[in-house]
Known about the structure:
InterPro entries: MethylDNA_cys_MeTrfase_AS (IPR001497), MethylDNA_cys_MeTrfase_DNA-bd (IPR014048), MethylDNA_cys_MeTrfase_DNAb (IPR036217), MethylG_MeTrfase_N (IPR008332), MGMT (IPR023546), MGMT_N_sf (IPR036631), WH-like_DNA-bd_sf (IPR036388)
CATH class of the largest domain: Mainly Alpha
Subcellular location: Cytoplasm
Strand order of the largest sheet: 1-2-3
Largest sheet: 3 strands, antiparallel
Pfam family, one: Methyltransf_1N
EC number: 2.1.1.63
CATH superfamily of the largest domain: Winged helix-like DNA-binding domain superfamily/Winged helix DNA-binding domain
Structural class: alpha+beta
Family: Belongs to the MGMT family.
Distance between the termini: 36 Å
Number of strands: 5
Radius of gyration: 15 Å
Amino acid sequence: MFQSSLQSPLGPVTATSQDGKHITDISFCAPFCQQACAVTEQAAQQLLEYFNGERCTFDLPLAPTGTAFQQQVWRALLSVAYGHTASYSDIAHMIENPKGVRAVGLANSRNPIAIVIPCHRVIGANGTLTGYAGGLDKKEWLLRHEHAI
């Protein structure tokens, strides 16, 4: 396992790679492994650029672990652009499962790659900020940083 961490306005953010080739996790926590690799360093650099307002998109090899349905939802999340939001219903329609709104919400909450797979951009149908694994304060900060709210 490899990890690289940075201090962000939201506290420590750590990128993890299981194989040294793909990012498998980005979370709001301090690292527990002190061994970095090229891809985790690349992720930390891109995240730093994001927090500094210099980056709106990420170019990283991702390999989140999840069910086929979760993977489908996470791929759909990647299409929600910087500065924009989508509802859980919007995501359900994107994956051609309009009745799967609750399942989309659950998959969204299990996203292991925060910020890069932008689950923070998913809001309630009425425009309210709803659940975020990192905490609603972080979700609000990220959306304000992206000028999405």
